[in-house]
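User: My collaborator sent over this chain with a note saying "see what the structure looks like." That's all I know about it. Can you take a look?
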Amino acid sequence: MQWTTLAATAVGTVLGVLATVLTDHVRWRRDRSERERETLRTAFAEFLTCLSGARDAFARSPASLERVGKGHMAIGEHGVYAAQQRLELVADQNLMAKTGRATLTLLDFHDAVVSGNSFDSQAYVLSWRAARQARGELIDEMKKALRRT
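Assistant: Without extra context I'll predict from the sequence alone. Here is the result:
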């Protein structure tokens, strides 16, 4: 047998194995990236759902001066803090800052409602707008994070 045939077979085998390893690595990275994106998407959706549920419940809250300043308990009852803590495991610092801001503006909205402000009062409208703006900024940051992964 000629050594050139043997060398060509060996080179072909090595190239085939390298191509297979490279293809598997690319597929593994793509799958990992997709899993990370899905994990983020799930955490984002859960947090936004809890945040919206709390906001909607707060909008229907009756006036109660005893509840002013106790929005953190109401937020906890709606699962916002739990969802926020799960989000901390997968989100970056910038996104968590926006998450914190959205939560704080929701607390302000809670206090405006339970203080007895009607839906057409300036305090209610301003706190509602601040909560919507913070939520919008958070959603924009979430979309950026999903594009990065």
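A starting point for your reply to your collaborator: Residues 3-59 form the longest helix (57 residues).
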